[in-house]
Amino acid sequence: MTQATRAQGQMEPTYSRATLFGAPVGELGLFASLLIGAATGFCAFFLATFVGIVGIMVYNTATHHNVDYAYSYMRGGLFVGVPVLLLAWGYLGKLWISRVIGSK
């Protein structure tokens, strides 16, 4: 038996080179891209909110002030979560559009 070569019409599967921590994000569909982008934005929001709450707690303890913890949501989590959400949707949307159109 002989092995088929590319000249005989045997096509090799093409894979996207866009990966994130080893996961091929260039192969995602529209819904998966939107879902993963939203999850990334939510993770960034909650991480920034957690860091803000801990920072306010340390500040309140060290200075004996009474800063409202709502600032961690409004000025910490929101200002980090929304840009990360938009950047993730932009990046994953660009990958999806380029895959649908077929350009490289």
Features:
104 residues; mainly alpha; two-stranded antiparallel ribbon; 4% strand; elongated
Order of helices and strands: EEHH
How many E strands?
A: 2
- Low-pLDDT parts are none
Q: How far is the N terminus from the C terminus?
A: 36 Å
Instruction: Indicate the radius of gyration in whole angstroms.
Output: 22 Å
Can you summarize the main beta sheet? 2 strands, antiparallel
The number of distinct helices, counting runs of at least 4 residues, comes to 2
Shape: elongated
Strand proportion = under 5%
Fraction of residues in H or I helices: 55-70%
SSE class: mainly alpha
Mean pLDDT: 84
| Strand order of the biggest β-sheet | 1-2
What does this structure look like?
Helix content is 63%, strand content 4%. The protein is mainly α. Strands 1-2 form a two-stranded antiparallel ribbon. The two termini are 36 Å apart.
